[in-house]
Please model this.
Amino acid sequence: SGESQPEDVDLSLRPRSLDDFVGQGHVKGNLSIAIQAAKMRSEPLDHVIIYGPPGLGKTTLAHIIAQEMNSEIR
Model:
């Protein structure tokens, strides 16, 4: 069927990179440095804890980190 499921629409609207993510500038800066350092060392990114109230983009940032590291969320 050619109909989109709600999950598909949600994922298609979600930012895919730190540049696309709006707000949280200090968090984006720190994550960008950590991601670049891990890539330069050819190592996986250390564990990251993202916390805060609903609606801040925690899940979106987790997806972006996975995308930037060419990985998947388990």
